Amino acid sequence: MGLHPKGYDLSLDRIRRLLDVLGNPQARLPPVIHVAGTNGKGSATAFCRALLEAQGLSVHVHTSPHLVRWHERYRLGVKGGPGRLVEDELFANALRRVADANGGKPITVFEILTAVTFILFSEQPADVAVIEVGLGGRFDATNVIDKPAVSIIQPISLDHQAYLGDRVELIAAEKAGIMKRGIPVVIGHQEFDGAKDVLISTAERLGCPLTVFAQDFLGYEEFGRLVYQDEFGLMDLPLPRLPGRHQIGNAATAIRAVKAAGFPVTDQIAEKAMLSVEWPGRLQRLTEGALIEHAPVGAEIWLDGGHNPGAGEVIAEAMAAMEEKQARPLHLIVGMINTKDPIGYFRAFTDIAHEVYTVPILGSDVGLDPVALAQSAAEAGLKALPMSSVGEALEAIRTRSADSAPPRIMIGGSLYLAGNVLAQNGTIPT
């Protein structure tokens, strides 16, 4: 982080130069499922991993960013098992090799880390790799994969406008850049018709075998079960282990993508995957830990790293669904970075949140000041109080709810905040 600039410099020239020096490891990967989108990339990746591991396959997984430790970005496949996060020695060796190959030339941290992905995934054996895009698609450093088994485009909404454009159609065009001529494409649920039209027209222009959510395949809840349906038939499955109605669409998209990549998905495989899937920091229930001890007794505490208006909407919908099943006052603890749209995020909670506590993000020089963030929450119509830490916010909720029912607390607004919380709580992803 001290040697290379943070953020993204969207271009493929530097990463291609570096990979050429390294012998082009990206050309020696197992079959790749390449995942892009504004929201739901990580969840689709987690479902794909669960579906493939349920078949006994070894699965490499690249995700970005990490929550607590850099190692989380690299899960290496283990035959018949859940895989493992990369070990220190293997990780350090790959980093040294990439640094030596780069020779001090200008390059970003993400490009360095992406080159590490290709070294690790090409040299460690596995049956398949699931690779999540970092930002955008067309010029993302992962987009040097010439022939993936399938490309997935998850829901498109406004985010990273400075890099990708200020309209969903422009953002969709950037995400569609991972599509490769003649390679299958699976398009997940799209809220905006303009974005969906761009994705479909791009796939058709490139001659990609195309399947679209709600058009060619479908997932929905019925009688407390997940029903998946496509041209091959129907599967009656348990609801995913990951909470939230939005995960039904994510699960359906992953099922269709794994099939499109050429791997079988039986009812038994899909059922096992729905019950085993995991994805830290995404509507993750926290029940114990050093930080949680500050919370009110009996409080229900959730953690989610969603950070844009689209994510706010699906999280708010999940909170509303929980309220229908068991009524509790909802308190938000939110920290965000300065490239996001806090007012758009907060608006999703206007009718359901009791109050908001805004907090700083530790270890980040781009975090929004809690006072300014509280002002954004107030502009969205929410009662908000700035706090110095998540622990202080939890204690404030404990004091203010002492004479009422145990509250429901949702901590979110940033993956960086989610990482702070997991680290302080002692809940380290493995």
TrEMBL record:
It catalyses: (6S)-5,6,7,8-tetrahydrofolyl-(gamma-L-Glu)(n) + L-glutamate + ATP = (6S)-5,6,7,8-tetrahydrofolyl-(gamma-L-Glu)(n+1) + ADP + phosphate + H(+). Its cofactor is Mg(2+). GO terms for cellular component: cytoplasm. Its EC number is 6.3.2.17. Keywords: ATP-binding, Ligase, Magnesium, Metal-binding, Nucleotide-binding. GO terms for biological process: tetrahydrofolate biosynthetic process. InterPro entries: Folylpolyglutamate_synth, Folylpolyglutamate_synth_CS, Mur-like_cat_sf, Mur_ligase_C_dom_sf. GO terms for molecular function: ATP binding; dihydrofolate synthase activity; metal ion binding; tetrahydrofolylpolyglutamate synthase activity. NCBIfam families: folC. Belongs to the folylpolyglutamate synthase family. This is tetrahydrofolate synthase. It comes from Rhizobium glycinendophyticum.
